[in-house]
Amino acid sequence: MRIHHIAIICSNYAASKQFYTEILGLTVLAEHYRAERESWKLDLGIGGHYVLELFSFPQPPARPSRPEACGLRHLAFAVADVAAQKSLLEQKGLICEAIRIDEFTGKPFFFTRDPDNLPLEFYQE
Predict the structure, then answer these.
(1) CATH, domain 73-125, list 3.90.830.10, 1.20.1090.10, 3.30.420.40, 3.10.180.10
(2) Mean pLDDT by 10 residues, the chain (125 residues)
(3) Number of Cβ within a 10 Å radius of residue 110
(4) What is the pTM of this model?
């Protein structure tokens, strides 16, 4: 029917929560601490839709991303204006790659990274 949500395990819960809510602007839908697992679970939404689940666990291993490894390659967000989004994120201190054009659709996009170095794409709809 559709993708329900994407789950991300972070190394620093406070930094990732701040990044996804204050920098990217996702909305907190629910937040729970699971004492038996020493784990936070944060449900985040965009436009009222549940899209991202952020977890913390004690000492998670680092995620390899360069060279690219098998598994999730990146998380992509649809935006109305790629140039405006890039400018906004750079004003908030993020390092963003140059805007490129998708060779198949002709639409602009760019990448940045979250606090754990997960590649994030912003794609113009």
Answers:
(1) 3.10.180.10
(2) 88 96 96 94 93 91 75 90 98 97 97 94 96
(3) 20
(4) 0.89
